[in-house]
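Running co-folding for adenine.
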Amino acid sequence: MRIDVVSIFPAFLDVLDLSLIGRAREDGLIDLRVHDLRDWAHDRHRTVDDTPLGGGAGMVMRPDVWGEALDAVLADGAEVPGGPETPGGALGAGRAVLLIPTPAGEVFTQRTAEDLAGADRLIVACGRYEGIDSRVPRHYAARGIEVRELSIGDYVLNGGEAAAIVMIEAIARLLPGVLGNPASVVEESHSALGLLEHEALTRPVAWRGLDAPEVLLSGDHARIARARRDEAIARTAARRPDMIRALDPTTLDSQDRAA
Ligand code: ADE
């Protein structure tokens, strides 16, 4: 997958050099490129923002600077499906998504991550201040580009960079070959099962007066699976009653219902 990130703080994205995502980049599974928005500003101060039309607090990022930046990034990448645009304006084969982190977006969930992991190309536009001029997403959507304005939760960050890192990590770990053990993606919290993952324990079996449940040492895989499922349902009910309400009743078996 090719991922381009445009930001006024490119160094913010340096953490994506580390850990599993860094390894995936080294292995060529992810081609991540970070661009400085100010490279497309024209004045001596490399200005990227201006006061809001209609008045009000804060600054808004200028559509002309963003337009030049995104045109250039979209036009680059002839070697990847989904880019660049053909001279007629249509996108090449493949799926390119312009992703704009914003607290005013649709909520990014594991389902969103799974969907976006199917794209060939992501272009992530990180806004600061009061955000990017609203005509920018509208313009690219009208040009036939898939635009997703997404929020990572009901709180406000100072800019899109931290949210971009969250979303890129959630998406990239779903790409084939990025995780050592693909089974971990299937069983974890927020997988299609709709439950939080069961609790995790390791050795020592007794620690500071706390004993691990005996069943985990039994070697009886059916009993272990049952105990883990009961625990997952109990903790989901306690911590996330909204997830229990949203469960498809057919995913519960008769023993779940009894519990
Ligand atoms: N930018 C600022 N706050 C944000 C949030 N909660 N999600 C995505 N982008 C943001």
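Result summary
Residues 189-258 form a domain with the Trp Operon Repressor; Chain A fold (CATH 1.10.1270.20).
Strands lie at 2-7, 31-36, 49-50, 60-61, 96-107, 121-125, 146-151, 206-207, 210-211.
Job closed.
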